[in-house]
Amino acid sequence: MISKYRVALASLLTVVCLSACSPEPMEASSIAGNQDVEKGSEPLKIMLMTKSQSNPYYLMMEQGARDAANDLGVTLVAKGTPNETHTALQKKMIMSAVEEEFDAVVFVPAKTVQLLPSLKQVQDQGMVLINLDDQINSEQAEKIGLEPIPFVGIDNQAAAQALAEKVLENHSDISSAYIILGPQVSSVSKARGAGFKEALAIHDKTLIGESSANWQYVEAYELSDKVLNQFPDIDAFFCANDVMALAVAQSLLDKGISDIKVIGYDAIPEAKALVEQGKLTATLDQQSYQQGALGVEAAVALLKGEDVNEEIWVSPELIVHLEEVINLN
């Protein structure tokens, strides 16, 4: 049985000064203990299914999952799609989990509704499921009879709002901004966009507009070109992931523009490097390494018959440049 107790988010946002210190991945809490876990004479077999094997964010998540699996003595097989919107391939991966004799699937859904029927089918056959990063639509899940699936991740709306508020507090010269989002069907994208907009409203800033670039570099580059041509006096771009932020930063660099702020989200290595160079204003570390580790630990705990919280929250970190004076205490 899954406990319905919602874990409190101990600390919503930790501020890290990148040039002064580099944040290390948080050590995963021991949900399942450290002993090897076996089913019969074979180690438990867990599938990690992410949205994209080309995004460094998910590679960090995979590393956390692998480290936890090694510690627990279980077998981990990582699978992913070529891009972050490939729901059809994810459905095939989910449906193959029973045939390939996996005991659990730890997954990040490409789309939070379309994957539900496949999840229901494998759950009905006894598969243990753990949801990471992008939370499935609980209302739709309940409608089709899907039992509650534990979620490991962050409160994206609250984190995005905190990120934007910190940037606006540090940069009073920002008066207008544009928001670049992921796919329209993505609950994570919607939550981050809502958080950005709430911060802009609180600080009485002008939201010039918002559009989707589907998490993609090329689409974000082209979109930022259009926005800059239409609104040359814009002060900032708030991007719902780092891949899109990197595209906007490159677009500005190609045009010789250095006074427009670009804010990312995910803290992939390339983004952190640009923050350190001052070419990216800020990014937010969702602790994807910890999410991967906790996801595997939660799966093992359920397979051992232990209770796991329905929602397991991790604490994000805001990464900014050294020239921004921030009290780290």
Q: Can you tag this structure with a few keywords?
A:
329 residues, alpha/beta, Rossmann fold, 2 domains, 7-stranded parallel β-sheet, 4-stranded parallel β-sheet, elongated, disordered N terminus, disordered C terminus
| Fraction of residues in helix | 25-40%
If you compute it from the alpha carbons, what radius of gyration comes out, rounded to the nearest whole angstrom? 20 Å
- What percent strand? 15-25%
Termini Cα gap: 40 Å
Largest sheet: 7 strands, parallel
Structure description:
With 329 residues, this protein is an alpha/beta fold. The chain folds into 2 domains: 45-154 and 288-315, Response regulator (Rossmann fold, 3-Layer(aba) Sandwich), CATH 3.40.50.2300; 156-285, Rossmann fold (3-Layer(aba) Sandwich), CATH 3.40.50.2300. 39% of the residues lie in helices and 21% in strands. The protein is built from 10 helices and 16 strands. It has helices spanning 56-72, 87-99, 116-124, 138-143, 156-170, 187-202, 217-230, 242-254, 269-277, 288-303, and strands at residues 3-6, 14-17, 38-39, 42-43, 45-50, 75-80, 104-107, 128-132, 151-153, 176-181, 206-212, 236-239, 261-263, 282-285, 309-313, 317-320. It has a 7-stranded parallel sheet with strand order 1-15-9-8-7-5-6, sandwiched between helices. Helix 1 (56-72) links the parallel strand 5 and strand 6. Helix 1 packs parallel to helix 10 (288-303), helix 2 (87-99) runs parallel beside helix 3 (116-124) and helix 7 (217-230) crosses helix 8 (242-254). The longest helix has 17 residues, at 56-72. The radius of gyration is 20 Å and the shape is elongated. The two termini are 40 Å apart. The model is unreliable at 1-12, 19-35 and 322-329 (pLDDT under 50).
